[in-house]
Every structure is written in structure tokens, then in C-alpha cells.
Design goal:
about 450 residues, alpha/beta, Quinone Oxidoreductase, Chain A, domain 1, Rossmann fold, 6-stranded parallel sheet, about 20% strand, globular
């Protein structure tokens, strides 16, 4: 299931149909490509003459999970080595007209797909490239991105064909994804945005984004206490717990992939809905300890540490009332086997297939057993439940303020680290959401 930050962008009235295409090529991109060609020619000549160094770089390996620390104050995972980037020095405040402030940089960096991966994704499949910052044309805005998120679905989008209702990534084109940024220039008085506005959008994987004003949604500072939380996958988690599994007071709940950006929040929402016991699956003993000791789970089962069904039966001897499945495969089969009569199963993701680039997870289902036990299995897509966004935002914001909810996440500094951040996420190195500071 696509993350909530993807779903939020569909609120803009001009964006129809919802979540059916990636940001389309616009006039500014055509113009940018022309400028880029000229720019690259000049850059190549300068390199030949020894006047400058090449302007592209590849992602470097981020620090390992041992470098993560849990901030006791906000209970969110952050890296110890957060350092400011040059982009943070850009002046904030009014910017008359569409022209860039004189103190702003002339170039920006974006991440492009070099070739489609076959098998494991590595940083070499992605490239950080520098381009001139374009001026917005009439009706467009220019945004300086401050944060972007990386999610497992991005690996699926690199396939030539996907089963998802969005346009995939293409070689030699920039990636896209949820991002948070500040408006620095507006061309036109009817854009509905002004310099200084904080906005969310889908033009991530770049330091600056330009596009039609309707593609950017202004963030209300009063909604969430931490602006970064607008990039959480909390809506996915809330939706699966509330409308999918319909968790009730006294339930025993199982959440698969519990240590990821979705699972770390799903367990918390289950507890708020009155669950008596919450069990999560993860990939290591280290993550299992974090789930139980710091994220409110009562027990954890570990993929690869023996039969998943046997582990679940030991953790839930009386069976499962509600299942939040984000994986499929063996874990879903085990959950169906342990489910009690009348259990509700919410299918939210298919990580079993996504980690290798697909979005399918095939299992054998005993339909007769499901019928006799009265078990409900329901798949959910965020684009079908956009009416729930206001309720989720209110509950999420209140929980963050009063401390009943936390937003576990890792922050990695610099766009040059973004390729490695995605690879590390797919390898299961992180706990919570993964954000890149730009």
C-alpha cells in the first residue's frame, strides 16, 4: 500500500484522478532538459580544461544501525551525526516575483535512475546529478525541499511494469516521492501560495522542485507538532487498524513488519483502540527488543527464527482477533492459521514481493476454513479512503502532543546519502520511517 504522504497529495482539487500518475513532464522540465544539455556541455569543457571537477556524485554508504540513538525526549530515532547542509543557509522570507533571491544557489541536485535493477538494488543504480535551478513559469512555484522520505514501494516503482496505480520510475529521469519544503518563489498572484509557505508534495529526490501550484499542498503548522510527521506513513497504519482490522477493546492483534515505518505506528494505534495484546513480527533480535521495550509491543516473533506459525501460537495461545498484514507470504499464512473465529484480517502491503521489486505475494488459502470460522479478509488502498484523512490527522496530532503517540524515524543528512538510505531500508537496517534531510 502506498504511504500516507502519497495519499495526502491527492487532496488538491486539481489533482484528478487520485494517485493515477506520477508528476507529469511539464514545460519547465522540457526547458530544464534543454538548459541541462547546455550546462553539461559547458561543464565538460571546463573539466577538460582543468577548471573544475565533475558535478555528479554517487551515494556513499550511510552509517550502520549501531550509530542510531533513541532520543528519550521525543522517542524518535535519529542519527547522531546530523550536520547542517548548505541548503539550510538559504535565507527565508518574502521573495518578490518569480526571480530567485540573489543569495540562492544557481544549481541543485537530484537523484536519477541509471538503469533498472535486476535483483538487489545498489547505490550504483542511482546517480546524483547537478542541474541549474529553473525559474517557475506563470502559475508555477519553486520550492526548496528540506525533507524527503524513502519507502519500500520505491523499489517496485523501478520495474519496467508494476501492478501499482501510479507511474513508475524511468532510466535517466529523476525519482519522485513524498517531500516537505518551503516555497521560495511564486510566478503569479493566483497561485494560492506565497514565499515562506511550508508545503508537502511528490517532487522528492531533489533539492529544489518546480511545478504547478496545485501540485503543492500548504501545511497547517497547527495540525502536527513536528512538520516531519507529515511524511510519516501514519495514515496507512491508522487506516489498517481502524477501518481494516477494526481493532476493538480486548483484542489480540498481530502486526507484520512491525519495525518499519508503518508497523511502528500501527502497534501504537492498536493500543489506543484498546487492544489487550499486541504482537509484532520483525527480522532480528535487536529489533524485537526495541518493539517490546520501547514501542509498546507485548511480544515479537522473528522471521527466520523457526516456524512463524509456531511462534505466533506461543505468543497468542488463545488466537488472534485482528491482523494487520504488511508482508504476505509465510507471515500471512501463519496469521490465518492462528486467527480466531470472527477475526478481521487487513491486507495493507506485500513486502514479501516488494523487497525484490514486485508487488505480489502468493499464498495458499483454505477458503473452507475461513468460511467456517467467519474470518473477514479485506484489502485496503489509501486512495479509497481519503475521507478519513481529517480524522487521522486530528488523532495523530493529538497523540503526538499528549505523548500517547510517537513518530519513530531515522534521519540521514544530504541528498548524496539518499541512494544508500533506500538500499539500507530495503536491507532492513532501520527502525521506523527513513527521512533524508536536504
Amino acid at each position: 500500500m502506498l504511504g500516507s504522504a502519497f495519499a495526502r497529495t491527492a487532496l488538491a482539487p486539481a489533482l484528478t484522478p487520485v494517485l493515477t500518475a506520477a508528476p507529469a513532464a511539464t514545460d519547465w522540465r522540457t526547458r530544464e532538459d534543454n538548459l541541462a544539455s547546455a550546462y553539461e556541455a559547458v561543464a565538460a569543457a571546463r573539466i577538460q580544461l582543468g577548471l573544475t571537477e565533475p558535478v555528479q556524485s554517487r551515494g556513499k554508504r550511510a552509517k550502520q544501525p549501531a550509530d542510531l540513538a533513541l532520543d528519550a525526549g521525543v522517542k524518535s530515532y535519529r542519527r547522531n551525526d546530523r550536520s547542517p547542509t548548505a541548503a539550510e543557509d538559504i535565507p527565508r522570507g518574502p521573495c518578490p516575483g518569480a526571480a530567485m533571491p540573489s543569495s540562492s544557489p544557481a544549481t541543485y541536485r537530484e537523484v536519477r535512475l541509471t538503469r533498472r535493477p535486476e535483483g538487489e538494488l545498489t547505490p550504483d543504480h542511482l546517480q546524483v546529478v547537478t542541474f541549474p535551478i529553473p525559474d517557475p513559469t506563470p502559475g508555477q512555484v519553486l520550492v526548496r525541499n528540506t525533507l524527503m522520505s524513502v519507502t519500500a514501494v520505491m523499489r517496485t516503482l523501478m520495474r519496467d511494469e508494476t501492478d501499482l496505480p501510479v507511474t513508475g520510475y524511468a532510466p535517466d529521469r529523476p525519482l519522485w516521492g513524498p517531500a516537505l519544503g518551503e516555497v521560495v518563489a511564486v510566478n503569479g498572484s493566483d497561485a494560492g501560495l506565497v514565499p515562506g509557505d511550508l508545503v508537502t508534495h511528490r517532487h522528492g529526490w531533489r533539492e529544489y522542485a518546480v511545478g504547478d501550484a496545485a501540485e503543492f499542498q500548504r501545511v497547517d503548522p497547527a495540525e502536527l507538532p513536528d512538520p516531519a510527521a507529515h511524511l510519516s506513513q501514519g495514515f496507512t497504519a491508522w487506516l489498517g487498524i481502524v477501518r481494516g482490522a477494526q481493532v476493538r477493546a480486548g483484542d489480540t492483534v498481530f502486526v507484520s513488519a512491525a519495525a518499519g515505518g508503518v508497523g511502528t505506528l500501527a502497534g501504537q494505534f492498536a493500543r489506543l483502540r484498546g487492544a489487550a495484546r499486541v504482537i509484532g513480527s520483525t527480522s532480528s533480535e535487536r529489533k524485537a527488543r526495541v518493539l517490546v521495550e520501547q514501542l509498546g509491543y507485548d511480544a515479537a516473533v522473528i522471521r527466520g527464527a523457526g516456524s512463524m506459525e509456531d511462534q505466533l501460537r506461543a505468543a497468542a495461545p488463545e488466537g488472534l482477533d485482528a491482523v494487520f498484514d504488511n508482508v504476505g507470504g509465510e507471515q500471512l499464512s501463519a496469521a490465518l492459521a492462528v486467527a480466531r473465529r470472527g477475526a478481521r484480517i487487513a491486507l495493507i502491503g506485500a513486502l514479501d514481493g516488494q523487497l525484490s521489486g514486485g508487488f505480489r505475494s502468493v499464498i495458499e488459502v483454505d477458503s473452507g476454513s475461513l468460511i467456517l470460522r467467519g474470518i473477514t479478509v479485506r484489502g485496503l488502498s489509501g486512495s479509497d479512503h481519503l475521507d478519513a484523512l481529517p480524522e487521522w490527522t486530528k488523532e495523530f496530532g493529538q497523540g503526538l502532543r499528549d505523548g500517547t503517540l510517537t513518530f519513530p524515524h531515522v534521519r540521514v543528512s544530504g541528498i548524496d546519502q539518499a541512494p544508500r538510505a533506500l538500499c539500507d531500508l530495503l536491507e532492513g537496517r532501520h527502525i521506523g520511517a527513513v527521512l533524508v534531510e536536504l
